[in-house]
Structures are given as C-alpha cells and as structure tokens.
Design a protein that fits this description.
The protein is an alpha/beta fold. The protein contains ten helices and eight strands.
C-alpha cells in the first residue's frame, strides 16, 4: 500500500471496489476512475437454433432449462436459486443447469434439493468448453446469478451478451453489471427469486424486452471501450507525473 499511495489515480472495474477504496482507505472520489471490463466477444455472436440444439445434445442438456454459471461457494449463493426452484409449482419448474466445479458447498445444495424432492432437476454438465459456453447460455430460458459479493460479475455480462434474460442481486457491483436490463432483486429472499423465475419464464413479451435491453446495456462493456478508457487513464496519470 505504501508503494501505491502517492499515485493520484486508481483504475477500477466497478463501483463496488470504488466504494471499498473510499470506505476503507479514505481515497477521494476525484482520484478514482472506473474502467469497465468486458467479456469475450464470442458471447456476442448469435447462435443458430441448429447450433444450440447441437450443444444441448453434446452435453446432455434438457430442451428447456434455467441456468447458473460460476464457481460453487457460499458467496455465490447457488442455494437460494435451488430454494426458489422448490417454491415453484411443478408445472412452472424447469431443470436447473449448473456449470462450475463442484465443491463442498455443492453438497449443501444437493442435500437441500434431495430433501425438497427436486434433486432430479439439477443438471451438472461436465467439461463444457469456453467455445461452447455461449451456446449453453443462449439455449437457456433464464440465467440466474444471485451472488452476495462480486468484483464485477462477468457471468451477468455474458448472459446479457448471449441474449438471455438475467436475474441478479441488488448488492455489490451486480446492479451496475446488469443495469436496467436485468431483474435486480434481494439475493437473500428465495420467494422473490421464485417470483422472478415465474414471471419472466412465462412471458415471451417480457423476455424479449429484457433481451433487447440487455443488448443495449452490454454495448457499454466492449473490449474496445475497455482498451480506450484504460489508455486514457494511463495518459492522464503520466500527464500528472509530468507536471510535477
């Protein structure tokens, strides 16, 4: 910290970390510049129906499903999604495809699902390649990411770029990652998650509106913008050093 304290500019990817610097280190807001990161451009390419069906077949995915992508830890809060799934009626439920490496926390999630009688709805595909992941996103009815804390929330951006409705948390950096395009809710309340799953999944009109907003919102998070803003920050910082 002593080595970087004299600098006048800090490069950050989101407001959550910006707030952390202000709160924990007392850095003036004028010295903090937020630079938004992006996800891989592969998520912006629209897959054909045939390609999506092929990737579903390859990984043994159901025809219709909800989706979660991310590591499995208590912070990622996968359990609240499974709790919400249990609160839906049988006709409202779809399998939940879960992509990520299994951990001890996964056992907690699976144990709950067994007790709730919905373990058969949890699908854990293995070895999904980065190249195929956009197709898995685009084949989903809904993407859910109810994390309790994030540095940014790349999966949320991946979902928006993949043209799938996104439900995410109203805390940390996630409201900024999802913007007005995503359904932003309290990640500790499974009944609200269930309501969002039910409402969005059952309304094609709502899904289409969320997809359109997602495309618009994700345009703020491109590789070119990230590179340009980072270069501007470097130039600004160098200019300050040059004036001393």
């Amino acid at each position: 910290w002593d080595k970087i304290k004299p600098l006048d500019v800090f490069s950050l990817t989101n407001v959550a970390r910006r707030t952390d610097l202000i709160e924990h280190f007392g850095i003036p807001t004028s010295k903090i510049h937020v630079v938004y990161q992006s996800c891989h451009d592969r998520f912006r390419r629209r897959w054909t129906a045939l390609e999506i069906e092929s990737v579903k077949k390859q990984y043994g995915l159901p025809s219709h499903y909800f989706l979660y992508v991310g590591s499995m830890s208590a912070r990622k809060n996968l359990l609240v999604i499974v709790e919400a799934l249990a609160k839906l009626t049988e006709s409202e439920r779809y399998p939940l495809v879960i992509i990520g490496r299994k951990t001890e926390y996964t056992n907690v999630v699976e144990e709950y699902a067994k007790k709730a009688g919905i373990h058969h709805l949890l699908v854990f595909p293995t070895n999904v390649s980065n190249a195929d992941l956009p197709g898995v996103y685009q084949g989903a009815r809904l993407f859910l990411y109810l994390s309790l804390y994030e540095g940014f929330g790349i999966p949320v951006l991946e979902g928006l770029c993949s043209r799938v409705p996104v439900v995410t948390s109203n805390i940390s950096s996630l409201p900024e990652a999802g913007g007005a395009a995503a359904r932003i809710i309290d990640p500790t309340k499974s009944d609200l998650v269930a309501d969002a799953m039910r409402e969005i999944s059952n309304s094609n009109e709502l899904k289409q509106k969320m997809i359109e907003k997602g495309i618009e919102h994700s345009s703020q998070f491109t590789s070119d913008l990230f590179a340009n803003k980072t270069m501007e920050l470097y130039q600004h910082t160098l200019a300050q050093f040059g004036s001393r």
